[in-house]
Amino acid sequence: MSACAASLGISFASAAPALMPWPAHVEWHEGELPIAAEFRVRIAGHDDARLRAGIGRALDRLEKRTELNFGPRYATEGGTLVVTCAAAGSAIPRLGDDESYTLEVRSGSAELRSPNVVGALRGLETFLQLVEARFDVAQASRLPAFAAGCVVIRDAPRFPWRGLMIDVARHFQPPEVLHRNLDAMAAVKLNVLHLHLTDDQGFRIESKRHPELPAVSADGASIGASEEARDLRARANPSAERPGHHSGDVLTQEQIKALIAAAAERGIRVVPEFDVPGHTTAWLASHPEIASAPGPHAVARRWGVLDDVMDPTLPETHALLESFFGEMAALFPDEFFHIGGDENNGKQWNASARIAAFKRERGLATNEALHAWFNQQLAVLLAQHGKRLVGWDEVLHPDLPRSAVVHSWRGPESLARAAQEGFAGILSAGYYLDLHYPAADHYAADPLPEGRAATPLAAERDGAERSPRPTLTPEQAARVLGGEAAMWTEWADAQNFDFRVWPRAVAVAERLWSPREVRDVADMYRRLARVDELLVETGVQHRAWPRFEGFSAEDATALRVLASAVEPVKRYRRPQIQKGGADFPLNELADWAHSESRPAREFAERLDRWGELPAAEKRAALDGVLAPLAAWRAAATQVAAMPAPTEFAAGRNETARRLVTLCETAGKALRAVANDGRFAAEEAAQARELLKRAAQPTAAAVEFPFLPALERLVAAAEVAR
Ligand code: ACM
After folding, report:
1. Which domains are delineated in the chain?
2. Which is the closest atom of ligand 1 to the Cα of 409?
3. How far apart are the first and last CA of the chain?
4. Can you tell me which atom of ligand 1 is nearest the CA of 488?
5. Is 228 a catalytic residue?
6. DSSP line for 409-439
7. pTM, two decimal places
8. Residues 601-640: pLDDT tens digits?
């Protein structure tokens, strides 16, 4: 790093270390602090077990990275890293806790100061990101030395609510997945784990008061498989008992307590979500008496917006919710309690004479009014337990108490509207990781953008109009608490969960922590590439996927290369192509492909850069841009010849054949342009036709992210004519 990359504030030199989220204030200085076996930490202020545990985890990762052994780790005098906390802070983190810290790295030692332990944990993560390998070129040494650049960092988050929502209901995510994701979250300063615990396809938490609720979702290895649970299940709803069909596992209360404790250790809140009154087929499987329609009700195996919904007019519904929410309110210490509230299509409410009569009696003109009435009851119930209601943006209604939090998912407009109407809000529109959008798209979505609203992905999906965000007063803007990256798991199981979330969630983490002005996309990708690697230290398995079950090592290698050239189709187009439900094996090309393929996007960038070169330089640079094509073509040729016993495998092979043709076409176009600056007319026409066909998804439900760049190349060659 250059001495006078000594940039103040949020600006940074391109060679600056890959800090992410970028801190609020960074001031580089000359020199560096070497990291050697003598590295010691001295605790100069408040000292407690949580701080020691955090330092322990940081040093474990540092030892692994540097292959050093720090021995005793702590010093009572001197010390390489001096940590001074003023106080313990909240043992169980709360919204708005101070997470600030200052970190000063000098060539002799470093100093980390914070008002509380959580601030110190945030600062430790920054310190870990500062430590980089230095290769001594002069000595041609292959062993790196490690050092942290000298710097003064004063840091604090822009938003207090920075979450990751994990849907454990569709595909169960066991405790080990959740725990390692906590570590990855902490590494990028996310501070809320939102657990989506119940849905149509599963009821994933143990209830001691109502063991029958999870019983219908449990399998042979879980608590719900006990004789007692099976009996309860059978008695509650015989139609829910379908041998060989189970929705997987359930989190026990002990596991939840351990998770909350681990989260608190890392300065992370845990917010539970029990989605009501819709998305409740798994409730109705054991409690058909609270359904709006007669049934039969069985835990769903297919995805989508189902008709099943609780009947909010029944005393039995309120009694069950009062009892179960009471139990859960005691289990989860956080002040916020998410009740979902999304996607009730209203069909069953419209069809019920009982519900129609209730609405008439109460003067509730619409289903929205009935939903709002229901939410008011829930808000009162939760308030009795000291909880504030959080709901997806469908809950936004003038009658909702102003203590409620609106969670925007259909578009950012509801966040602004909520803030204007006096509600706190959080943003997930633009942060849906399961839509397979690139990190840059998530990065562009800002809970409080300047001027126009960020791209409302979900609204776009629903065909809604994009509208400018109204300007908020400072008081209204202060109600915008932050946001959450959201990972719905219809198409992600425990084995590929990490692969879908990381590293793209880091772009969201930065958007929520760093100043708004930090938004250089190229620099974000530069830093994301390094954080992607560092995240491995936290235990997340995002680089371990894919599994390629049932393939030889050689075929798996070819499939891996093919997968690197494609991405899953965006938004929710996959289910339109591949009809799959809870039993879908998630072992197809769309599962092996990263949501954002680095090789494919780098190839596209290279193509564009090459296209802008002066004619004389194009030929010299030709081999560099052709290079990935040879590898893709070879792998795709191999895959195209593999047996294709299923429709999806046939789609995979068709994708491979298309890649072969695309590689050939790209090669032809590149060579033609390099040689005489143009592409023969009939060849260009053929190429255009081919690109058009390649843009249509195959049964493999993937797309080629570099197609637009290839189109630009062909168009440029034609213009040159
Ligand atoms: C949602 O995606 N239905 C909240």
Report:
1. 25-155 (3.30.379.10), 161-534 (3.20.20.80), 553-719 (no CATH)
2. 4
3. 45
4. 2
5. no
6. -S-THHHHHHHHTT-EEEE-TT-BGGG---H
7. 0.92
8. 999 999 999 999 998 899 999 999 999 999 999 999 999 9
